[in-house]
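Fill in residues.
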């Protein structure tokens, strides 16, 4: 109670009038005693029912989060985020521009948090990583857990953003809320700094859209739209094939400093996100720009469906003689052919056809067997087809999961054989190292000059906490139910715990070939939280459909986006 009294203010707590209160209590007690036994029982029952109803309807704060898939029924624009505006640049309100109605998905479900011991262990790992990030790198891109420092790549708080849906799916409400507050209050796209179109699209745009779909929270869509507008200048090239980099403040796009070309995988791994942004805002400009790139690549000459890893934004042509690989700069071109086809309800035939043709090309040109034990691996074609290199990046280990997803969607069942063979080989890249962790790059023995199927060069022996094989384990487990994949995943998780866990987080290591000389690198990549731990959590779930692959498609950074009917 506050009362003004001439020249000073009295602040006090209201005092109970004890006599009146005592009298009131007595009369309530008398009335109660006058009730019949039946009336009293009825009142007891009403209280009991009310009590149980309250218990039932109040969600357990730590364990369950309600997902409301997008509710964008209200037409019209979103509020513009004042903090994200750049003086002199008017970013359009996301609003209906014609073309699409904003997406409406009326499903809802609960994420209850971990239910198995293994999931609980993964959640503990996440919390450990998060704690270190919070303490020493909050608001920065990466944690450097050994030096208790941080690293800024784009200066966008990448670890927070990449982790949003992981926390949501794991039921980590407190951590999720603090991350949401940071995004709401501090995430801005106005830094005078170059960012990579592909990386920011899969990590930031993909994550914002994914968590928007999971929560229905329009703050995320507002941020995503602002970012989408700042990325669009990349597509203003003579061909429509985007430049790799853009300054988010000046909105000037340009090729990388070291080359006039863009990476093929980069320009073809942005379509899920840009399409989803269009579907959510009702404005087709994002989807139009990104889908055009796929159409251009579709029209180019390929080697039995396989593409070189560089493409020129001026001419819209591949760079002749550049490498063909399912590893770096080539990998997710193939992934997004299938996933775009799925995202659009299997209605765009050329995407499926190009995907099927590419898998045929992979079987014909890239898939080879080691001589001692017949391990199937995917090598690389160099110099326009003249040379074959028996080298496979760990990145390639996403492919078996994608193959299984394609078979699940009705594509040739023989793809599962290749998937199975590659699973085995990828597993060996882990199991044959003393750390039980795979190196970044593995070479394979085709000559039979010794009894080893594979070998690792010193410079390739690092492990960056990458997710690709875990991702495939999850797809294979979800789609086959074979628990061997869970067992393999658990062994790898234990290896991460043993060799990459440090006091303040998890770190990349420089050498998987020795348990006594790990060469810890002092860097926790954002995809460890965004992908690796998420896929492990999903892999160990009793509910194989915790993320239902008939309703969602995972973007290249493990952020689930909805599947549309067209
Ligand atoms: C992630 O950023 C994505 O999975 C990307 O497609 C490939 N590289 C990393 C993880 O290894």
């Amino acid at each position: 109670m506050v009362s003004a009294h001439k020249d000073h203010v009295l602040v006090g707590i209201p005092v109970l009038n004890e006599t009146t209160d005592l009298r009131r209590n007595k009369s309530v007690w008398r009335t109660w005693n006058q009730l019949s036994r039946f009336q009293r029982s009825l009142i007891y029952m009403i209280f009991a029912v009310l009590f149980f109803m309250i218990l039932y309807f109040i969600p357990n704060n730590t364990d369950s989060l309600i997902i409301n898939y997008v509710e964008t029924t209200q037409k019209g624009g979103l509020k513009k985020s004042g903090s994200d505006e750049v003086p002199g640049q008017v970013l359009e309100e996301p609003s209906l521009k014609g073309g699409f109605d904003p997406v409406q998905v009326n499903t809802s479900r609960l994420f209850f948090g971990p239910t198995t011991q293994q999931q609980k262990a993964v959640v503990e790992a996440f919390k450990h990583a998060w704690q270190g990030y919070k303490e020493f790198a909050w608001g920065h891109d990466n944690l450097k857990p050994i030096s208790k420092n941080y690293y800024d790549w784009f200066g966008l708080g990448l670890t927070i953003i990449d982790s949003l849906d992981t926390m949501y799916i794991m039921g980590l409400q407190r951590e999720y809320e603090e991350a949401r507050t940071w995004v709401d209050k501090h995430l801005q796209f106005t830094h005078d700094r170059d960012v990579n179109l592909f990386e920011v699209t899969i990590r930031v745009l993909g994550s914002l859209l994914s968590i928007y779909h999971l929560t229905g929270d329009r703050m995320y869509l507002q941020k995503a739209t602002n970012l989408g507008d700042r990325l669009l200048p990349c597509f203003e090239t003579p061909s429509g094939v985007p430049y790799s980099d853009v300054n988010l403040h000046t909105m000037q796009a340009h090729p990388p400093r070291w080359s006039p070309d863009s990476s093929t995988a980069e320009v073809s791994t942005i379509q899920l996100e840009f399409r989803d942004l269009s579907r959510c805002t009702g404005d087709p400009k994002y989807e139009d720009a990104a889908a055009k790139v796929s159409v251009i690549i579709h029209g180019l000459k390929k080697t039995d469906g396989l593409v070189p890893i560089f493409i020129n934004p001026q001419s819209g042509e591949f760079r002749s003689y550049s490498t063909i690989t399912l590893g770096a700069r080539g990998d997710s071109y193939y992934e997004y052919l299938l996933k775009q086809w799925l995202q659009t309800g299997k209605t765009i035939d050329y995407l499926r056809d190009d995907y099927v043709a590419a898998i045929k090309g992979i079987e014909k040109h890239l898939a080879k067997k080691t001589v001692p034990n017949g391990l199937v691996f995917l090598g690389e074609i160099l110099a326009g087809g003249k040379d074959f290199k028996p080298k496979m990046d760990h990145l390639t280990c996403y492919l078996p999961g994608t193959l299984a997803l394609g078979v699940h969607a009705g594509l040739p069942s023989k793809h599962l054989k290749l998937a199975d063979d590659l699973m085995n080989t990828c597993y060996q890249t882990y199991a044959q190292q003393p750390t039980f962790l795979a190196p970044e790059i593995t070479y394979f023995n085709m000559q039979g000059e010794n009894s080893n199927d594979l070998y690792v060069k010193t410079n390739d022996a690092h492990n960056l906490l990458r997710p690709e094989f875990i991702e495939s384990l999850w797809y294979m487990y979800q789609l086959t139910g074979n628990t061997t994949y869970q067992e393999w995943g658990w062994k790898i998780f234990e290896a991460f715990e043993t060799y990459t866990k440090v006091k303040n987080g998890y770190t990349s290591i420089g050498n998987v070939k020795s348990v006594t000389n790990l060469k810890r690198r002092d860097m926790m990549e954002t995809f460890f939280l965004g992908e690796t731990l998420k896929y492990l959590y999903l892999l160990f779930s009793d509910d194989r459909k915790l993320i239902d692959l008939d309703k969602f498609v995972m973007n290249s950074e493990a952020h689930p986006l909805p599947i549309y009917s067209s």
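The mean pLDDT is 88.
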